[in-house]
Recover the amino acids of this structure.
């Protein structure tokens, strides 16, 4: 009987890995997201000293954040959704403010929105949507 259980465990582990990869932000999943990555790079100069709540976004941008930091992963995912026009600027402000800080951090979020490229894609390279 143990032999039959082993393939089931392998299948469950493989399914878990696929599901976790599907939940990753577009920029983490897709290294071809050159436009999005260039946008993030541009924010370092356009929006210095960005802080939302206790999260220092400018520091995340300088150090490429931390994959184990839930706030960073959430911010990156929401910013990706904003960049790819999957959420509106108002939805972005509301979701990031609620998760990371508060309405007092509007200056940083306004700068992020204000510096969005006018011409940007509606989905990540490869067409993968969450």
């Amino acid at each position: 009987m143990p032999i039959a259980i082993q393939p089931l465990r392998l299948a469950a582990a493989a399914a878990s890995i696929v599901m976790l990869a599907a939940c990753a932000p577009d920029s983490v999943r897709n290294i071809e997201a050159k436009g999005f990555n260039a946008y993030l790079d541009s924010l370092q100069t356009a929006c210095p000293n960005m802080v939302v709540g206790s999260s220092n976004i400018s520091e995340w941008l300088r150090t490429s954040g931390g994959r184990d930091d839930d706030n960073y992963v959430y911010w990156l995912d929401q910013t990706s959704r904003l960049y790819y026009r999957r959420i509106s600027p108002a939805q972005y402000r509301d979701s990031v403010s609620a998760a990371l800080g508060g309405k007092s951090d509007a200056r940083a979020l306004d700068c992020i929105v204000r510096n969005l490229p006018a011409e940007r894609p509606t989905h990540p390279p490869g067409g993968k949507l969450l």
Notes: Confidence is low (pLDDT under 50) at residues 7-29. The CA atoms of residues 74 and 84 lie 15 Å apart.
